[in-house]
Structure prediction request, 1003 residues.
Amino acid sequence: MFLETVVETRKIFGGETSLEKLVFYLLAFVTLVIFFTGLIRRVKKYRAGRKLVGWDFRGGKAKGIEHVTEPPSHGRSLLDVLTHKTITRRKHSVGAAHLLVFWGFIGLFLATSILALDYDIYGNITRIFFGKERSFFTGWFYISYNFVFNIAGVAALLGAALLNFRRVFSKESELDYERAHKPEEGYKRVKMAIGDHIFVAGLLAIIVTGFLIQGLRIDGSNFPSFEKWTFMGYLVGEGWRVVGVGATLAGQIHSYLWWIHILMALAFVAYLPFSKALHILSSPTNMVLRHPASTRVLPPSPIEHMGYQELRDFTHKDLIGLDACTKCGRCHGVCPARTVGAPLSPRDLILDLRQWVDRSTKNPMIFDWEERPEGSGPRNVDGRLAGDVISERTLWSCTTCMACVEICPVGIEHVPLIVQLRRSLVDQGVMDPTLQSALQNIATQGNSFGKSSRMRARWVKSLDFPVVDARKEHVEYLWFLGDFASFDERLVEISRTLAKVLSAAGISFGILYESEKNAGNDVRRAGEEGLFEMLVEGNMKAFSSASFDKIITTDPHSFNTLRNEYPAFGLTAPVMHYSELLAQLLYEGKLSLTKQSKNVTYHDPCYLGRYNRIFDAPRAVISGLGCDLVEMPRHRDNSFCCGAGGGRIWMDDSFLNERPSENRMREAATLGVDYFVVACPKDYAMFTDAVKTTGNEGKITVVDIVELFYESMMGEQLAGVAAGDSDTDIKDGKQV
Amino acid sequence: MKVRRIEKGGALKIVVGMRQLADLVEELEVADSGVDIDRDFVKFVSNEWDEAALEEALLIKEAVGGEVVVIALDEPDVDQTLYSAIAKGADRAVKIVGVEEGWTPTRLRAQLLSKWLKSEGDWDAFLTGVQAADDLDGQLAGLIGATLGVPHAAVVSKAEPEGSSLRITQELGGGTLSESVATGKVVLGIQAGRQAPRYAPITRIRQAMSTSTIETFDAQEIDLGPGPKVRKIYPPQSKGQATMLDGDPVEVAEKIVELIRAKGLVR
Prediction:
C-alpha cells in the first residue's frame, strides 16, 4: 500500500476489492435487518404491557415530600447515565471500568458514524452532484479524528480488559449465579455465564483487532509522520515491525484481520437485541423512566383484577425494567432475604420474570437463558404467575426494605413488582396462616393484635398526666402510634416515655384513642389492597373528626404511608417522625439535658432512612446528647433490614438460616459499642430478641432513641433507665 | 331423589347456617335487663365453627360442583359475614328477617332455619358449626335434624363427597374416629374443616357487596312451647384459687395421689 498524495488521510477501505466492498455492504445490510428486527420484537413486547393509569400519587400532596417522591428530570437521569452515578456507587472500580467502556465505545461508535457520513453520504452526494467524490476526512480533521478516537479506543481497551479480568478472577458473590430459590427439578445457568463472557470478551476482541489492523495499516504505509497523532495505532504498528512484519506482509495480514474485525463488529450489532448487550439500550431507557415514588407510593393494581396475573398486567415500564437487568447482582448482594437463606433474590425474580415474558412473547435470547425442565419456573407459561412461575415463598420472603431498588444501577423497581404479585396471591387467598389471622384481626379490630380497639389507649392510664383526646380538643401534634407502640407490652413503656418527654417539653399533643387504626403500610405491602383502602377510610374519618396541625408517628412504617400515600386520599397535614421532633427539641434548647458519654451505634429503619431519607435527625439527637456514635459498616442508605417489614413480622421465619435481625446484631457486636439505638418499635422488638439469640445479652443493649433522650432529660434522677429489664412478652420479636 | 342427583352428575346443593356472636375480644357486660349481654357496644363476628362448616361446603363444591347457599338470621353485622361468604365462593346468601332483636335461643333458631329449609326443599346437606359461644352444647344441628326428620351427625371433622353421597368422619372422643356414608339429605354439625377457613380479600367482599344481593326470608310465627327461661346472666364467679404444688416430680406426684385419696376419688 502507498500514499497517492501527501494529504493527511487514509483510504476508508484499505485496498479491498470491489467484490469485497459489495460483500461488506451486503453483510452490513443483513446485520441492520437483524438488529432492527430484534429491536422491533422487543418494542412489541413492551407494548404488550399496559400504560400505567390512575396513579394519582401527586393528588393533594403534603408539602415537603417532593425530594423522595418527585421523579428526576430527564436531564438529571441522562446525567446520571452519562456520569455512571448509579454504577459507580458502592463499587467504584467496577463503575470506573464500565465508564471507560461506555465512553470508549461511544467514541468508537461516533468514529464509525463519521466515517460513514464522509464516505457513504458526503462521498456519494458529491459524486452524484459534482461528478467527483469528495471527503472531509483529511488534514487537520483526519489528525484530530485519529487522536481523539485513539483516546476513546484506549479507554475502551482498558475498561474491557478490566471487566474481563474481574469476570474471570473475582470471587464476588454478585458474579455467582447460584439461585436463592433452588427448584427441585434442577436448573443450570451456565449459558448465562457464557453469555456474559462472550459479551465482555467480544468487546475486548473487537477493540484489540481494531488496534491491530490500525497498526498494520500504519506499518503498511511506512509510518507517515502525521500518523504519530494516531498514537496507539502507531505504537501497535511499531510493535508489528519489531516482531518482523514489514510493510508488504502488513498489507497482507491487514486484509485478513480487517475481515475478522469487521465480522466481529457486525456480529456484535446483530447479537445486541438478543443478548445481554441489549442493556446498552434498555438500561438507559429504564433510568429515564424510573420513578422514586413507585416504591414509596405503591402503584394501583390493574383494573381488571387484583395484582399481576398475566402479561398485559405489566406496565411498559415494568417490561423495559426487566430487560434492563444486567445480572450485576448488587440487589442479590444486599437483599436481607437472600442473605439469611430465604428463597428470594431480587435478581432471580427479575430474571425469572424476564424469561417468562420472553417465552410468552416468543422473544428469543441467545445465551441469556436458564436451563430448566419444561414447565418449571419461567418455563411454565400456563401456570399461575404468582405461585407457579414465581413461588409463593419467594414472594412472601420480601421485607420490602427497598435495598434492591436503592442500589439497582439501572433503576429497576423490584418492590412494586413483588407487591403486585402478592396482590394476586392474596386474591387467591394464598398466604401464611399467621399472616391471614393478622389481616383478619386488622379487618375486624383495626389492629394486628386482635385486641379490642378500646384497649388501644390503655397504656395512657398509668401516666400521671392526662393525654389529650385530639377528637375533643385542638392539639398541635396528633400523635399516631401504630399497633406495636400501642399494644405490645414492652413497647408501650417506650410510648409512655415519649409521652413524658412531649409533656415535659410543653408540646401540645393528643391521640385518637380507639379511632386510630393500623395505618396500613404493611397491609398494603403484603398485597391486601382492599384492606388498606378500608384502613385509610377509617383513619381519614378519624383525622377529620380531630383537630390538629401536624402528625407525628412512632412507627416509621406508619410514617411512610401517612406521609407518602395518604395525600392521595386527602391528607394534607405534614407528617413527622418522632426522631425529627426530638431533634427539633434539642435544637431549640428549651430543655436542659445532661450529657451522656455512651458508646452507641444506630440502626437506620428502612422506612425512615431509605424510604424517607431521614438519616440525620436521629444522628443529630444521638450526638447532641453527647453519645459517641460508631457507625455499622452497613448504615444510612445501605442499612440492613431487621426483617420485620412488608408484613414479614406476621409470618413464619423459622425456615431461615438466621434472622436478618441476628445478622445485623452480629454486625453491631463487632463494633464494641454498649448500646444499639433504634427509632422504630418493630426494630426494638426484633433486636431485643436478636440480642438474646446471638448471645450478646449483657454485652449490647437495645435502646430506643427516646429512652436516651429521656435519660438526659431526667439527668441524675434517673440512672440507667435504658438498661434492660429483659424478660417480657416479646417473643421472637413477634406478638404472641 | 337418586334420579335427580344422577341428572346433576353428583353435584350437591349445600346449605350452611351461620351465626353472629359478640366478639369475645371485647369486654362483655350484662345488660340492664339482667338476662342478656349488653349488645349496643359490642362488635359482632361470625361463629368460627360456622366458618369451618362454610369451608367444608366450599371444598365439596370445588370437588363435585353444585351450589353453596349461606343462611343466617338478621343479626348485627350479618351482612359482612354473608358477603364475605359470597367472596369466598358461596353462590347465594339468605337472611331471615323479622326476628325479635336480642339473643335468639338455639331452639328458636333451629325452628326458623328449619322453616326455610323446608320451603327451599331441594338441598342435599345442611352444614353448620358444631357449637357456638351461645350454644356450647351444640344443639342447633341436632334440633334441625330432628325437626325435619333428616339424619344428623355431630362433631364432624370431614365431609367428603363420594359419588352422590357424603363420606363423613366424626370424632367420637378418646381419639376414636368414626366413618359413615350419608345418602340422601343430611344435617351436619362441623367441628373442623379439612383445611383452615380461607381468607376473603376485602376487594372481593366489596365486589360481592356491589354485585350480589342478599335474599330475605320472613321469619314466621313460631310457638316454641314450654321450655327453660333465662332468669339471670352473670360473669363467672371465682370460687377459691388454684394451688401450686412445689417439689420434684416424685414429691408432686405423691401430693397429687394424696389429694385424690383425700377427696375420696380413689381408694
